[in-house]
Queue: 2 jobs
Job 1
Amino acid sequence: MKKQKFQATKINPKRFHPSQIRYLILIFPVALFMLLPLLYIFNHAFKPLEELFYYPPRFLVEQPTFANFTRLFKVTGTSGIPMSRYLFNSIIVTVLILIASVIISTMAGYALSKLNFKFKKVINEINTIALMFVGIAVVIPRYLIVEKLGLIDNFFVHVLPYLAVPVGLFLVKQFIDQIPNELIDACRVDGANDWQIYTKIILPLIKPAIATIVILSFQSVWNSADTSTTYINDDSLKTFAFYMNTLTTGATGVAGQGMAAAASLIMFLPNLIIFIVMQSKVMDTMAHSGIK
Amino acid sequence: MASLLLTQRKKKGVREKQPIAYLFVFPYLLMFAIFIVIPVFAAIFLSFTYFDTVRAPSLVGFSNYITILTNDDIFMQYVIPNTLKYALIVGPGGYILSFLLAWMLAQLPHKLRTVLALIIYSPSLTAGITMSVLWKVIFAGDNSGYLNSVLLNLGLIVEPIIWLQSKEFLLTIMIVVTLWSSMGVGFLAMLAGILNVNQDMYEAGYIDGIRNKFQEMIYITIPSIKPQMLFGAVMAIVGTFSASGIGVALSGSNPTPQYAGQLIVNHIEYYGFFKYEMGYAAALSVILLLIVYAFSRFAFRLFGSKNE
């Protein structure tokens, strides 16, 4: 009898069982609260102008149209720079950061997990402390350093500050820890050098961790307008996230809201799609995320 | 032969040093130093100076800290109470909520769980500030705002409320919005952790006299996933403070209306970028970093395995 009860309520069950309904009752309102704003943005973005003017406002779109998106693409900011330019900047910046941060953190992760050197322990400990680092707290000294390095209004200021991500390195290193040392020793015996071990053995084995850094970096970069507002004065070098922010602060009024919703959707969807595609890999990495 | 040597060395624990490792860590360490370590030390140094960005910084000892603690009325009256209220609700509140959600989701079958987890996680993809457009429309101050229109229709209010400029509501709205987007990496880590707890542990627990799901959670699940709990806690703390600039994004002004949503982060930016008192702003930064560090130490005390 007792055994049966345990089976019915176990963790990670294979199929649905009535005993799970109580959890659904609790989760459902939360999920609804999480979902509503997103549904709202989705509906708002596809509303034609007259529906945006409805009073009282209606939640669902009745006659969906792409009008907000076409207006968004046609409108140019006060500086006369077309939206496509901002989008282009964002894509270049994001791609550069993803490639560079994956290379940098997997290389460091390999060394900090599998190689033996004097400062290994210290660096790992410092990185664990750096998990607590809140970038927003040091905006001012960071600004002064960027200025000293002559990076103000330089395209690379979008990229460089995002390359060292303590959480990314931490997750990669934890993941590499799972790879048996015997495997690496065996490769060494076969005459492989460290670079070969890194490219041929480590990288293929840690794809889930790589997917996770990609997602984390993508989120922070794609959504961030901070670099553009803080370090860039030249409008042609700013990014899409910045442009979005100007839309939301500048273009008030109902038509502006429709465009802003369309722009938010363009911001949000790539995040969502990438996450859905990679979610099983992320969960795989997260299983090793613990700080011991 | 070589492999024999290797295993022998390993047994003795004297594997030779591999200096090539420095090449592998160098790019990371360089970026880490420039954009994380040096800014932190620069903040500490500047916090002991007066610096207006025009003339070189001049040392002033502890006077910035003394001013903050004794003479900054706005800091003591608004910034600290706001920050504490915000951080205590969003931090521990959001953390406990994300653990409970993860735990309940783990009791559901795979497909259903994946869909619900995705819904709960997806707001964190919006990273708060860029989505402030959404909240601006929902909380718009005229009667076209969603919330106002709903409340007017229900007859709960007679006049539209200017939510985002209001002294009473701004901080609450900030807390709701941040909680909405706070089920992020930490939530996923705890979910993955719970799903990976060895099933035999539960079976053994029931034989040893665990009687209900609550006991199961307290005596088996949480102790088994302590490392993930700690990671989740650190992520919750960092996320809470990183998102705390949201008051300015929502209300559109720094300082926020009547300082209703003024948090330390906004106070730093106000002194740094509007008043150009870099030394003073740096001292505020150091205080913020110390607060974050203190919160994290507490989390380590709760869940860490190392004794300190």
Job 2
Amino acid sequence: MSAGRPGWSDQQVEQAVGNLLRIGLLIATVVVIVGAVIYLVRHGGEPPEYRIFHGVPPDLRGLTAIAELAADWRGRGIIQLGLLILLATPVARVAFSIVAFALQRDRLYVAITLIVLAVLLYSMVGGYV
Amino acid sequence: MEQLTVWQFSAAAFAGSIAAGLLGALTGLGGGIVVIPMLTLLFGVDIRYAAGAALISVIATSSGAASSYVKDGYSNLRVGMFLEIATTCGAVIGALLTALLAASAIAIIFGVVLLASAALSFRRRREPDPREPPDPIAVRMRLDSDYPTPQGRVAYHVHGVPAAFGLMFVAGALSGLLGIGSGAVKVLALDWAMRLPFKVSTTTSNFMIGVTAAASAGVYLNRGYIEPGLAMPVMLGVLAGSMLGAQLLVRVQSSALRIVFAIAIALLGVQMIYGGLRGTP
């Protein structure tokens, strides 16, 4: 479809997107495993409580709070950081597609992708109507 | 399940999640839809925590699978991105709805979706007719594309854009409400409504699942549904199980096996509805 258009071909874009997803997943998995080891060594003997919903504490919900916990080498904080990295990979994929469509001078799809990115960011930031 | 320690629980949830990922890959329904009944029915986990952990595993599985076949040039990036407007909006709305519904109501909806997904997995697909004229919207949106076959790249038209857009909104809402990838509804939109070639619809659907799930996961994270101690064994287990399942699928193509699995999933659906009606999901 994009033959003759300047910039990257659709195939090159897809290849880069595939690499992006794989690297993101790999980093996230390693971080989750590191957090899991710390969490299990320190708290492995305690009883878990997932039967009744309380909602996780606020310091495991926000970006900066999670980063602070992880920097403190807290197991649950590091796991949550790994999950945040995992969550960021599809978002990065969408952001990357904006650049790719822009390089193809495809204004319609730059606009469409910006809408998708806006919805994703709204979901991440919170403060819902 | 009363006196389990974190170690024992994590090991059991990890093992169960491998099985769920395997089953999800072999039926083509995805790990998320199998792992949630396992966590709620077997381990007694609250359905919101189960949905949070499952959603994380859906993103991991989607990224893992997409990276391997996106390079083959099957998925249609424009179709995916255009329909992601519908799935992400639906996902955010579905995720926000979870706060308004009782856990038992979510369990009943989940059971109905399980039954429908099991039924849909028996649906016979028809190959698209290349002589059919494309949807004018598809032409205006430049959605028509081509895909690789042994005979070289073959062009295809895209049909039924409004119907696919509507179905994708529903797929997104179910994803956000239940913490699943909604792969069955997405494939329905792509190959029943849009009539994309089989490989294009499955790869594009998988590609979209990660972005849709990320839209719900943001809300889940802010609402405190993502419990790291639970999400950790579930994510790692489902990821391992579905990768193993994808390997096995290349070798085993037994339709008898698929029928057995689809029946097992339908039974889980009945159990979820029964539990929800009794008020103890």
